[in-house]
Amino acid sequence: xxxxxxxxxxxxxxxxxxxxxxxxxxxxxxxxxxxxxxxxxxxxxxxxxxxxxxxxxxxxxxxxxxxxxxxxxxxxxxxxxxxxxxxxxx
Length: 90
Prior knowledge:
Elements: E1 6-10, E2 19-22, E3 27-29, E4 32-34, H1 37-40, E5 43-54, E6 58-64, E7 69-75, E8 78-89
Antiparallel strand pairs: 1-8, 2-5, 3-4, 5-8, 6-7
Family: Belongs to the bacterial ribosomal protein bL21 family.
Keywords: Ribonucleoprotein, Ribosomal protein, RNA-binding, rRNA-binding
GO molecular function: rRNA binding; structural constituent of ribosome
């Protein structure tokens, strides 16, 4: 991810326009890979909440032979769309 990327993440309870901050778990910069938790504690990622979206529809079918039993269930995961506003190192 980089600055100004728009991402869909699992739903968070923030209002549209709010700013959220989290810690990265892996940083790659010009071929240098940082995955050590002590070094990553100095990095923060900030993003602006753009709104809520829904993922693709998933259909679940259950069927049992010779009994007439069939059941259909659908699911759509809720996501939050965010725009990355900054990646900072302390």
